[in-house]
Amino acid sequence: MSRPDWLWVIGLGTSQGDRLTTLTAALYALDTLPGVTLLRASGLYESPPAGGIARGRFLNGAALIQSRLGPLALLAACQGLEARFGRRRKLRWSDRTLDLDLLWPDA
After folding, report:
1. For 93, phi and psi rounded to 5 degrees?
2. Are 22 and 44 in contact (CB under 8 A)?
3. I need a surface site. Which of 35, 47, 59, 61 has the fewest CB within 10 A?
4. 70, 19 contact by CB (below 8 A)
5. Cα torsion at 106, 104, 18, 53 (round to 10°)?
6. pLDDT per position in the chain (107 positions), as tens?
7. How many CA atoms lie within 13 A of 49 on its CB side?
8. What distance in Å separates the CA atoms of residue 21 and residue 67, rounded to the nearest whole number?
9. In the 8-state DSSP scheme, what is residue 19?
């Protein structure tokens, strides 16, 4: 018997470069990951940085996905996407090209 697919809410954000193009491309990239299907995406919202050393304004949204991947495999896939979009984890709470957060699982 196989495990049912997981539903996840993924938070997306960026504070560098062409933020709208980045988030649009990130949603497409999520949907093309093996074992992942994009079900819905929220609207996008701009906000100032909250704490940390980030200076750029953030553009944020969320996506509802269905995935055959377990939590650790999905996290690794999301971190791989962040790296493809130029994310470098040098300084905590700094500006970033793409941030993908696993917010809410529902198995």
Report:
1. 65, 25
2. no
3. 47
4. no
5. -160
6. 456 688 999 999 998 899 999 999 999 999 999 999 999 999 999 988 887 777 888 999 999 999 999 899 999 999 999 999 887 777 666 668 899 999 988 75
7. 15
8. 24
9. H
The structure tokens 């984890």 sit at 89
- Answer whether 91's CB lies under 8 Å from 55's CB: no
Contacts of 19 (CB under 8 A, 6+ apart): 58, 59
What is the identity of the amino acid at 98? L
Q: Which helix (H) or strand (E) holds 45?
A: strand 45-47
Number of Cβ within a 10 Å radius of residue 82: 19
Q: What pTM was computed for the model?
A: 0.87
Is residue 54 within 8 A of residue 97, CB to CB? The reply is: no
3-state secondary structure labels for all residues of 74-101: HHHHHHHHHHHCCCCCCCCCCCCCCEEE
